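Annex B. Sample input.
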Amino acid sequence: MVAAGLMHDVAYKQLSMKTTKAILGQSLFLTLALVIPTITHRLGLNYLVAQPMHWMILFAGLTYGSFSGLILGALIPVVSFIISGMPVPAALPLMIPELAVYGFVTGFLKQKITGFGSVAAGLIAGKIVYLVLIAITGKLNLPVMEFVQKTWAPGIIAVIFQIALLPVVSGLYIKSVKD
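Annex B, continued. Sample output.
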């Protein structure tokens, strides 16, 4: 019975983002989204491999829905830049829409295709937005497939972990907060 309830939370359930508890939860997600990249950079981990900002944005979309994912996805790179100077100024205008799309699509699709599918779709949609913006701005100086291989392939392990773990952790979080 408990497993069935958790699977529903993993698959389709989201929390209201309008309660005081929800605002505190989303503030925690924002804080973690700023701390995780700092730790990643201090440990010398390659950001292409670890994808440190992505985790909490996807988690916010899964947990609180599309609007929360969109807002945190757009806000986190800006706040991070103001505080730490990262991401670099040239990447910031590209990352804001990419991360906002991650959060929005993940949150929007969770109630339709399960958490696992929504994370995968959100990641694909965000990557496509990033690629289109790179092409539009004239910063795509490699053939598309070479660009994809050099910039996205290093993070494939993080992507697999995000798809596999974030829906489960979000389901556990939802279950603990709503009980």
